[in-house]
Design a protein that fits this description.
It is built from seven helices and 21 strands. A five-stranded antiparallel β-sheet has the order 6-7-15-11-12. It has a four-stranded mixed β-sheet with strand order 1-2-5-3.
Length: about 300
Amino acid sequence: MKFWAEADRLKDNLNNLVRGELYSNYSLRPISWFRVGGYAEILFIPKDEQDLRYFLFNKPEGIPITVIGGASNLLIRDHGIPGVVIILGKAFNHIDYIQSEKINCGASVPNKKISNFALKNNLKGFSFLSTIPGTLGGSIKMNAGAYKSEIMDIILNAKFIDTSGNTYTKSISDINYGYRKTDITDEMICLSATLEGSLARKDDIKQEIEQFKNYRNNTQPIRERTGGSTFKNTQNKKAWELIRDAECNNLSVGGAMISQRHYNFIINKGNATAYDIELLGETIITYVEKRTGIKLEWEIKIIGDGPEVLI
């Protein structure tokens, strides 16, 4: 763990720029699904969109900006994150009906809340979100998906603000995306999105959600400290199959190990560091490539500072 020596001074310099919450040397471990990671030098939770825009427009030049959503598919390194970490709080946690099949959701709305809202209003097409942890903004950036559906299937447009404070809207045709990726950069902060489904019988939607939920409960380590799917599936094989075929499904490093319920999940047994998890992941990548000729790609996003991982 590492404290940022200049954090309090930086916080004092930023106080006049914000109306929201501002903290120095803020521990990110409690919000990480892995329960690992260091401190944010500064954590900023904006009061509203105007507060965020004013801060970004007037922030000191050269200060790093990092946005965190639900931290469910994220590995925060042990030395923490320099500069300002932004978490969009309750001001961006809203769902509004636009018309019969369209809704507008703030970027900090949990995916499960969107699925529940859709069920309540007889909207089909959102059920897969009930099984994806995290919030809408992060899901849009990585094009999250499950059960042959992905977030880009239901987006009409999304509103962004850049790190200079400029806002703009992109339609789905303006976003380049693929399997678990988009061209949305780290300088683009999603504020909200308009989503579209289709009307259906509530019982049918409920049954679909239950099927997804039961399958997830039976196949994934949902009660463990994990960051979700660790690696992207490849075109011809799923990541867990490659891990199995490379005979490295029993690997562990320190307090990190591969889940025996699902080989594409790394879990924190309780005393893992972010370094343990990253080293285990890189070791898996090396083993799989050596034995199968296929190089796995991280699906989990790794951010922050920490010890260099060498294989």
